[in-house]
Amino acid sequence: MAYQTPEWTKNSNIYEVNLRHYTPEGTIKAFSKHLPRLKKMGVDILWLMPIFPVGIKNRKGTYGSPYSVMDYKAVNPDYGTYDDLRDLIKEIHKMGMHVVLDWVANHTSWDNGWIQENPARYYRDEHGNIMAPNDDWTDVAHLNYDNPDTVNAMIDALSFWVREYDIDGYRCDMAGLVPTWFWVKARAAVDKIKPCFWLAEWEDPKIHDAFDMTYSWELHNLMKRIVKGEKNVYDFDHNRSYELYQFARDQYRMTFTSNHDESAWNGTEFDRFGDGAKTLAVLTYLLPGMPLIFSGQESAYNKCQPMFEKQCIDWNNFPFQDMYTKLNELKTKNEALWNGKFGGSFSKIMTTDNWKVYSFARVKGKSKVICFINCSNQPVEFFAESELMAGSFRNVFEDCDAKFSACEKLNLKPWEYKVYVAK
User: Fold this and answer.
1) Residuewise pLDDT in 10s, the chain (423 residues)
2) Contact by Cβ (8 Å): 109, 189
3) 128: part of which helix (H) or strand (E)?
4) Residue 260's closest CA among 19, 5, 28, 68?
5) 3-class secondary structure, 119
6) Under 8 Å between Cβ of 222 and 236
7) What residues form DSSP beta bridges with 417?
């Protein structure tokens, strides 16, 4: 690995900001009013969905896809101005948080200036016509990285926002559709300006040649299947084996119960997980990986956020905000839960119910976190056994003390979770 992951990410969480849906105004300035609340909630990294002008030609829906980029060096006027973005980034940094921009390197809008300036930057068919990436993505044109000019232009645009706006990194859309060698070259160039954090929307471990973090899609899909009854918690062990075999400890994995794609195409976390939505959100913080919060999850927003239209998130109340605040504090303060190589070991706690109850310990030095999670809609009574359980603990969510021996009889209500920190 030729790069160094920024140390400030070692105990971070990440929060995805959907500017279009975040406020009635849908602007950068309107979103900035939420910064104090997000800081108080313990958010570390703010991932801004694409802030660039959206293509008009071949647009889908009323507003078009944020991932149809008309100009890589411009701010979408619907969101505000260059100064609005600069002020937002300065305020984020002032609060001790970091910001990454969403980047689309595989394709542009059909009215991106590059198409007129240099059509050779794009794939073309036998008739010389610029092509879409596939039959579904008809609103975008496919970039060709066999052309060195495409490579240089994209690196120039990536460098611009780091150099001129002091952003802290990139989340790269469908990163595996672009050659990994390009990302290696781009990162080397950008990191000379400022060491940045790079997140790939991809699962292949090979892309970690250039990226700090990838999506844990396997885990997300497994959670869906457990809720449907197609799998059970025993399969979490198979997922852990997969993670350990495929990914090195210094390769971060992003865990999540929702994101903009899931919300737009597959429903809300309540559609996917039902009464287990809150429980599985807790699990994403306890397993190795960096947890993601998607816009509106703290308000338990239960409507899909469409990709091509606008629908303002309801911020009237925040039923999940206290949970996320406690989880963010737990993540920040306990080294056992830190990210990648900075975090602790993972040890299974054996239980007499391996179909519904998932229990494990995370340990690093004196930092120890143990949990008992009922991943079913049935009450369970079980025995749990591990030397790692023995000792005095504090219940994170009930704020009370507990003492365990190496073997305990326990009860959990449907979808109930118990999380303890060693005293």
Assistant:
1) 678 999 999 999 999 999 999 999 999 999 999 999 999 999 999 999 999 999 999 999 999 999 999 999 999 999 999 999 999 999 999 999 999 999 999 999 999 999 999 999 999 999 999 999 999 999 999 999 999 999 999 999 999 999 999 999 999 999 999 999 999 999 999 999 999 999 999 999 999 999 999 999 999 999 999 999 999 999 999 999 999 999 999 999 999 999 999 999 999 999 999 999 999 999 999 999 999 999 999 999 999 999 999 999 999 999 999 999 999 999 999 999 999 999 999 999 999 998 999 999 999 999 999 999 999 999 999 999 999 999 999 999 999 999 999 999 999 999 999 999 999
2) no
3) none
4) 19
5) helix
6) yes
7) 373
Q: How many CA atoms lie within 13 A of 203 on its CB side?
A: 9
Residue linked to tokens 């073309």? 124
Secondary element (H or E) of residue 185: helix 180-193
Burial class (CB in 10 A: 0-12, 13-18, 19+), 310: middle
The rounded distance, in Å, linking the Cα atoms of 156 and 291 is: 31
* Three-state secondary structure call for residue 292: strand
Alpha-carbon gap, residue 284 to 222, rounded angstroms: 12
Query: DSSP for 211-266?
Result: -SEEE-HHHHHHHHHHHHTSS-THHHHHHHHHHHHHS-TTSEEEE-S--HHHHHHH
Q: Which residues contact 413 (CB under 8 A, 6 or more apart)?
A: 374, 379
Does residue 291 contact residue 13 with C-beta atoms inside 8 Å? yes
Q: Count of residues for the chain?
A: 423
Q: Where are the beta strands (DSSP E) in 144-212?
A: 169-172, 197-200
What residues contact 230, with CB distance under 8 A and at least 6 apart? none
User: Taking phi first (over 0 means left), then psi (-120 to 50 degrees means alpha), and beta for anything else, what does residue 17 get?
Assistant: beta
CA distance 383 to 385: 7
What is this structure's pTM? 0.98
